[in-house]
Structure formats: C-alpha cells, structure tokens
Amino acid sequence: MPFLAHHSPRVRRAAAQAVGRNVSADGVLEHLAPLLLDSSGMLAAAALRQVRGRAVAASVLARLDAAGTPHSRRVALSIRQDAGAWDRIHADLTALGGQDPDLAGAARTDLLAWLQHGAATSYGRPSASQGADIARLLATPKLSSRQRREMAFVAGIREPSPP
C-alpha cells in the first residue's frame, strides 16, 4: 500500500497491479480510485484495468465527471461501459448527446459495436426507469433511424420519435 504514493509512476503502477490482485473488491476501489486521475497515463490505465468489472460507487464516477478533463470523462465512460448492458447503453447514449466530440465518438463506436455483436446476448430487459431514459436518449440525430429502431427493439421499448 505505501508504494501507491511512491514518486515513481512505474513503482505506483506495479503497486496498483499488486493491490488489484491481492486486496478484496471493496479495498481495491478504496485504494485505486484516486489513481484513476493520476497524471501518469500508464498508472491510470493500470488502475482502470484493476477497477474494471467491479462495482464502482456513484461517488467515484461523480468525482471523475467533476474533474472535467477529457481523460477523466473517458475513464468514467469506460467504467460505466463495464457496468452491465443497460447501464452501458445509457452511458453511451448520454455521452453521445454530450458536448465532448471525442467522448461522443467513443460512445458511438461502443454503442454500434454492442448493437452488432453484444445485443444478441442481452437476454434481460432494462428496468422501467432505464427503459424510459433509453427511449428519451434514443431520440438523437446522431443515430440513424434504423439504429434507433434496432436499439428500441433489443431494449423492448417503444420506438423513439424521430428527432
């Protein structure tokens, strides 16, 4: 744990990897969440690899969003994309409608990849509130009418009105 604060990014990265392998799920987030905003790209990427696939508190995501940097927003989107199919779709649609063109591009790419490859393995349906949010977010001109129809079909929601 003390090496997570070491002056060398390489040492901090090795420590992050060790913490990810050896600490309980709750402890990993407690110790690695601050490293997601580290100025060292390799360290932030290592911390992200250890955090991915784990339940991340809304407060951690809010901190990443509040940081307001392209990197922090991309990390938050990446974590949300691993949270489950409908959380992923909601996160992608939200980013697609946002002001950051790079983040919107990444979200669109992920959304279309999911539609092409992952949608067929989404056996559950979104909750009522997720479905309502997804329907609202689908009314975007950044997707074709066919893409909006396909997304609505997979989600089991009414087809959104054209923008």
Give me some keywords for this one.
2 domains, 9 helices, 163 residues, mainly alpha
Written account of the structure:
The structure is a single chain. By secondary structure, the protein is an all-alpha fold. It folds into 2 domains: 1-72, no CATH class; 84-163, no CATH class. Helices cover 66% and strands 0% of the residues. The chain is built from 9 helices and no strands. The mean pLDDT is 86.
Please give the count of helices.
9
Estimate nothing, just give the exact number of structural domains: 2
Helix and strand composition category: mainly alpha
Q: If you compute it from the alpha carbons, what radius of gyration comes out, rounded to the nearest whole angstrom?
A: 17 Å
Rounded mean pLDDT is 86
Number of strands: 0
Largest sheet: none
Give the amount of beta strand, in percent. Answer: under 5%
Point out poorly predicted stretches: none
List the helices and strands and how they pair.
Blueprint: H1 9-22, H2 25-32, H3 41-51, H4 58-67, H5 70-81, H6 85-96, H7 101-118, H8 128-138, H9 145-155
Helix pairs in contact: 1-3, 4-5, 5-7, 6-7, 6-8, 8-9
Entry summary:
By secondary structure, this protein is mainly alpha-helical. It is 66% helix and 0% strand. It starts with 8 loop residues before the first helix and ends in an 8-residue tail after the last helix.
